[in-house]
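REQUEST
  id: r-88c1
  op: predict_structure
  target: Transporter
  payload:
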Amino acid sequence: MTSIRSRGRRLRSARYLLAGLVVALASVGLVAAPASAHNSVVNISPEPGSVVTEQPGVITVTTNDNLLDLAGEGGSNAMQISGPGGDVRYYGDGCSTVFGPSLETEVQLGQPGEYTVVWQVVSTDSHSISDRFTFTWQPDANQVLAEGSATAPTCATDNSSSGAADTDAAATEAAADADSGSGVRATDLLWIGGALVAVLAAIGATLLVLRRRPTGD
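RESPONSE
  id: r-88c1
  status: 200
  body:
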């Protein structure tokens, strides 16, 4: 009889512990879900590192989900194109447009050489993501070249675009994170910390219930 009662207590304890673990895992899933919602880039045109021989007309960064177009909010979506040489010149009018998952900027390139594109977008989870890429411009004799501007242009009709300096700083930080091999954002660390707290709370609650169980039937 004592063995049967002991076995029953162990079974009940196991069920409580299993229930606690299920709650803990569910808590981790609910808390950590927003951290995995950042958009990721699926296509860039012109392709980074490529050689372009005809005016692209439009430079596009496409992600895996729709972007947020936060009209009137500073530091949302922007793209900056700069040309080669020590005397850097900028191209395009500074205006960027969101089409679903894509950010586009119209541009006419100038002198041959390596061009740098700095971009920033707002992903579905409302976090800004940014980066930069380069391509080589080798126009043929039939291409019309733009003069460019000595200063980074600001879109005259779109107040939602961030300033060129802010966009460049954000992209520089993102590129530095990529170079260091760190893909963890500060917000991700907060979500992970919250998930750990939820797990510990669930385990603590389970142990408390087990301690309060009576020793006999």
